[in-house]
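Q&A FORM
Asked by: J.P.
Topic: structure of Regulatory protein YycH domain-containing protein

PROVIDED:
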Amino acid sequence: MIEHVKTVILWLLILLSVFLTYQIWIFQPNYRVLQSTEYIDRTQIGDEKGLDQVIRPKQIVLYNDGLSFSPIGSLEYIQKYYDEYHGVSVEQITVTTNFIDIEIDEEFKGIEFIFPSSIPFEALNEFFHFNNNKSSFIRNIDRIVFFIESSDGKEQVHARLISNNEQVVANAITNISAESFREDITVDDKNGSYYEVFPYNIVNYGSGFMGTVFLPEDDLMINSGTYLAKTISAEHFKQSLFSDPSFVKNYLQSNGEESFTDGNRMMNVLNNGNVLQYINPVFGDGIDRNDKHILFTGLDFLNGHGGFTNSYYYDSVKSVGDKDEINFRLFVDGIPVYRANFFEINNLYEITLQRGSGNRIEQYKRPLFFVDEEPINLGESTILPSGYEVIKAINNKEDFNPYLLTDISVGYMMVKRQSFVILEPRWFIYYNNSWEVVNVVNGMEDSEVITDGLE
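REPLIED BY: S.T.
REPLY: Here is the structure written out as tokens.
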């Protein structure tokens, strides 16, 4: 009898096991909860961009009839020249460490591209088509000059690639037609976008290599403007920056700032919601950095985590302790933004990325808003003094040290309000590793105008 009971129980257990197995096999989870959760596409924050879209010269100079001209503050003309010379083929490259300055006389016909920071040569493969491997002798480029040169009665367009830091010059012959080149550098200034300029040497690298800026002979006329500033939700970046956003916890700090973390990575919303900071620490991973330039690492990171929300261009690279740091700067209508009313907050107009010992981006800071392309109100033109007045003002700067000056440029001062920004043109200098407004007296003191009502 007991054996029969055991047999019955055993069969019941077997049947129960078969039933449960079948139920597991046919089980369909209820996806309605997941489907009702808002999902933010990682690609919808901004646009992915290639190298050729984030590298732009800070200045273009045309040489013709013994004069020099520059389309200052004109995105249309800068884009025009940059696009026309994109994809140029070069050959017969010769590399030298002897700098021979080009004689700018009435016979000289040329165009020069001056970049805000050294461009890694690998990036120039996006700009040039090299027909031999001599290019490997230069690691980075600061300036490119195209010019006509005659030999045996034949005119050819040459290219000179200059690396000030390395004190190296590469000379090459291009496939550009001399006839079309003459047309390109002929200034037809119906819109008043070109200014006659003169060279001013700032940094002496030695052996004839100079950091040169071109400043206007006369006063400039640059428009100010008011633009809508649209907030980007931190939720968008939470979806983009964390591998599993469902594990991210949100904390409100005592100072009113907001933080997000998954226990390793952290994302902070700073400065009244205007700035995002992302930290992804690396703890002793033992990964050695390869030779990949941070420009490529930074661009890959930005394209993979939301893209670009405005016209940001490669601006500078520097070392911060044992880390590399790269900056992409906001440009509006072809003019860079260098300062804001919150003077200490660079990331209202810069995207900054830091890379540690490996190739991983460990810190990322950027604005949490984007600026509309078209102004809602275009202000009256602001008169900026000539380059001569700027030089005079710089030399009159109290305790001025010329060795700390490395750049001079027209740029915008940004005044950030709740839902809009005001952009005012000013002269700036890069002095002692930061951008400063030049106080030039031209009917009024610039410093008084800037600080009035902005603090």
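FOLLOW-UP: The radius of gyration is 29 Å.
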